[in-house]
Design a protein that fits this description.
about 70% helix; 3 domains; 20 helices; mainly alpha; Annexin V, domain 1; globular
């Protein structure tokens, strides 16, 4: 997939999100030149050298916009890492927002926090099938389940929740939303019980995990009836907290909130058949908005596709809507669109 991106020099966007970490490293080293690259590669393992060397060998020509975007991302990640080391995540956020703006700063910090999360324990859980994880956790206290899910990828946490009873899942999400700081000793006990044999490399400070934003991110990976059941359970426990989480979520119908430019960017990434399937259960307002954003020819083709589909299963529609939402989140994380500009002035 990455090679296809690099082979398209006339592509209007610089799609760094489609490149692997190894490909990005290869491009940065190529941009540095032989001498500077040699200093860095001396510190790499043999496996890393071979992987990067392979990518360099097959990257005959890198479009200038892709190379520039990769180098800029590398510089921003480096700036963020130094800032975190100097004063923590919040200090890094302030530094980055001044340098690249709030939206890009949030995306950079999100990538770094994801990398940090992946570098610590719970490897066994992260590599396990969600159904196996849910079986393991089904009889645990909801607080324990919440602590463990807080350290999994949101997509995997969502997959685990799908396998749990909705009442338990709602209780877990309520506790996950209220987690603020967890003592490292507690996490080490969980790591020894559920994770790999290695201990967590945590400091003496309390580890931060969870919160309303974490719950919203997990729920963004769940659509349809289960999402509603989980939110209803949360609302029964704490209506204000539930509303705060909803405000942080992006659901399929929220596409109506996108501006014209963002909507057109999203539609370019979605195949006509999947879009038609997603719109089968959409509101009339959303259908009209999407159709009006397309050319007359494309709109007619989409209408024909929807009619051709005929009756479809609800779960297939929900899956298609979930895939559309994933595209929206991907583009937002890449800084290409804004899902909710609010009253802020926008500059394009």
């Amino acid at each position: 997939m990455g090679s296809a991106v690099l082979a398209s020099p006339h592509r209007p966007e610089a799609p760094t999100q489609e490149l692997s970490g190894t490909q990005k490293a290869a491009i940065v080293l190529m941009a540095m030149g032989p001498e500077a690259a040699a200093e860095i590669t001396q510190k790499m393992s043999q496996d890393e050298l071979e992987a990067i060397g392979f990518e360099i060998a097959r990257l005959e020509q890198v479009p200038i916009d892709v190379a520039r975007a990769v180098v800029e991302e590398w510089e921003q990640m480096g700036r963020a890492a130094v800032s975190i080391a100097q004063g923590g995540v919040e200090y890094a956020r302030v530094v980055l927002e001044q340098a690249v703006g709030a939206q890009k700063a949030a995306a950079i910090l999100k990538r770094i926090e994801s990398q940090l999360r992946d570098s610590i324990g719970f490897q066994n859980l992260r590599n396990a099938d969600p159904q196996q994880v849910s079986t393991l956790l089904r009889n645990e206290h909801p607080q324990t389940v919440a602590l463990l899910l807080a350290h999994l990828d949101p997509a995997q946490a969502a997959a685990v929740l799908r396998e749990l009873p909705a009442t338990l899942g709602g209780d877990v999400l309520y506790r996950l939303a209220n987690i603020e700081k967890v003592l490292p000793e507690v996490m080490q006990v969980l790591e020894r019980s559920y994770g790999s044999e290695s201990k967590l490399a945590l400091s003496n400070d309390m580890s931060v995990a969870g919160g309303p934003a974490s719950v919203a991110e997990v729920l963004n990976h769940i659509t349809g009836t289960l999402e509603k059941e989980l939110l209803d359970t949360l609302a029964q426990r704490d209506q204000d907290l539930c509303e705060k989480i909803k405000d942080l979520m992006f659901v399929f119908e929220d596409i109506l909130r996108l501006d014209d430019r963002a909507l057109q960017r999203v539609l370019r990434e979605i195949q006509a058949k999947e879009l038609a399937l997603a719109l089968k259960a959409a509101s009339e307002a959303l259908r009209e908005r999407v159709l009006n954003s397309l050319s007359s020819r494309a709109a007619d083709a989409l209408k024909e596709e929807m009619e051709f589909l005929g009756p479809v299963r609800l779960r297939d529609v929900e899956a298609a809507q979930g895939n559309v939402v994933k595209v929206v989140r991907m583009l937002e994380e890449a800084g290409e669109i804004v899902t909710d500009a609010g009253d802020d002035d926008m500059v394009y």
